[in-house]
């Protein structure tokens, strides 16, 4: 999407109550800026050439730009020195800035929650900033944002992905992005940075009751549908719905559909799904994955057959470095049905195969750093079971809610942009 299209969208919604919310959503959907030795311009400003040039005490990249401007054209050796060091400086500055932003958001959420602790029980008018499957996020005029969980709403609500709304099944009350509603502050937790609101019915509510579909009727007021068998019996007649079957029809009737034959053959050996592939979806929700590494698995007995049939659960698994070896714990491999005495304990500890340098690196990165090793994926490679191990850092509750919210917002923005482009 071009910059002109984005500017056109913002001009169309200018002055609307949801303009600020849409502007923030568009900003969050864009790729995060990073420092680089190459000039790529600025997408949002539609500038061909762009660099930071603010106060040198604000951030190190700005100080570097000031130094380069001061030395520009003086000495070729200085220029070649900058060419050598800037790639590493840009990479480090980008990673440090992301860490600083994360810390800033966490502190901001904590202080906002601490501020709102004195206002628990108060009622305010707020703006719906995002609508997701599990509820809606609303924002107060002072930029404090909180969640109204769907379980706290009166009645049953349906989430509509096409128009990004929550609609009451019986009441018809509808929530959409940019809408103003009445809320009450229910909870503010300084430690987690979470703020919970509850919805209060008011004159601000938007009610969209849909009409139930009815059958078309003729001029006499009777339904146009064909009469049922009971009605025909009462009228004393039957419809001639039977038709004569040819010998070919009888053969077709006795022959089973091809997909049932394939399903029957494949069910025994676990066909019809990816062989031995299992993903730990919970890991990305509970942890921030810093790095990944592939490891082999030491399996015994019939465990490899269970892995090939994808009968493995990584949900609560973790790995530890002990005495120069990496061990996988709490991973459940279901016993093979025809294994008998060769089956092993489903949750026994299993050794992982890694190079010595890799093990030493993992030990350094997990020892006293708050990092942990979690299994992300199991798959087969050249007939051997492989495990994708993740070096991870646990998320706070605020981070989990924020990541869910961002994922839902990005999906919402993608749908809106798709509808806009098809017009």
Q: Would you write up a description of this structure?
A:
- A hairpin with a 4-residue loop joins strand 5 and strand 6 (173-176).
- With 423 residues, the protein is of the alpha+beta class.
- Helix content is 35%, strand content 25%.
- The strands form 4 sheets. The chain has a 7-stranded antiparallel beta sheet with strand order 10-17-18-11-16-14-13. A 5-stranded antiparallel beta sheet has the order 3-2-1-7-8. Strands 4-5-6-9 form a 4-stranded antiparallel beta sheet, with no helix packed on it.
- The protein contains 11 helices and 18 strands.
- The two termini are 14 Å apart.
- The model is unreliable at 211-224 and 258-273 (pLDDT under 50).
């Amino acid at each position: 999407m071009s910059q002109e299209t984005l500017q056109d969208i913002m001009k169309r919604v200018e002055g609307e109550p949801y303009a600020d919310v849409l502007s923030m959503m568009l900003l969050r959907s864009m790729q995060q800026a990073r420092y680089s030795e190459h000039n790529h311009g600025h997408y949002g400003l539609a500038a061909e050439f762009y660099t930071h040039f603010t106060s040198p005490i604000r951030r190190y990249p700005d100080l570097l730009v000031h130094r380069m401007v001061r030395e520009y054209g003086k000495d070729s050796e200085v220029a070649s020195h900058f060419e050598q060091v800037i790639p590493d400086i840009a990479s480090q500055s980008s990673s440090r800035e992301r860490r600083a932003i994360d810390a800033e958001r966490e502190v901001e959420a904590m202080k906002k929650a601490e501020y709102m602790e004195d206002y628990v029980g108060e009622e305010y008018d707020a703006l719906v900033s995002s609508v997701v499957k599990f509820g809606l996020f609303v924002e107060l005029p002072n930029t404090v944002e909180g969640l109204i969980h769907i379980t706290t709403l009166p009645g049953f609500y349906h989430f509509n992905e096409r128009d990004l709304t929550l609609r009451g099944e019986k009441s018809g009350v509808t929530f959409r992005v940019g809408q103003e509603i009445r809320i009450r502050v229910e909870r503010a937790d300084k430690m987690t940075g979470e703020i919970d609101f509850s919805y209060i019915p008011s004159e601000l509510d938007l009610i969209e009751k849909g009409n139930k579909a009815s059958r078309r009727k003729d001029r006499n007021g009777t339904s146009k549908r064909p009469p049922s068998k009971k009605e025909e019996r009462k009228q004393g007649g039957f419809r001639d719905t039977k038709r004569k079957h040819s010998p070919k029809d009888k053969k077709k009737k006795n022959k089973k559909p091809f997909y049932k034959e394939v399903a029957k053959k494949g069910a025994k050996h676990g066909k019809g799904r990816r062989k031995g592939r299992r993903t730990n979806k919970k890991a990305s929700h509970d942890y921030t994955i810093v790095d990944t590494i592939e490891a082999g698995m030491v399996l015994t007995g019939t465990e490899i057959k269970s892995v090939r049939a994808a009968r493995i659960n990584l949900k609560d698994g973790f790995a530890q470095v002990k005495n120069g070896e990496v061990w996988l714990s709490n991973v459940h491999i279901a016993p093979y049905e025809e294994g008998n005495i060769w089956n092993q304990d489903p949750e026994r500890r299993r050794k992982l195969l890694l190079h010595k340098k890799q093990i030493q690196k993992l030990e350094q990165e997990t020892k006293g750093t708050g990092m942990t090793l979690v299994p992300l994926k199991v798959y087969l490679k050249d007939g051997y079971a492989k495990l994708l191990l993740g070096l991870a850092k646990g998320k706070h509750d605020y981070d989990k809610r924020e990541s869910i919210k961002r994922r839902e917002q990005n999906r919402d923005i993608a749908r809106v942009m798709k509808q806009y482009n098809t017009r």
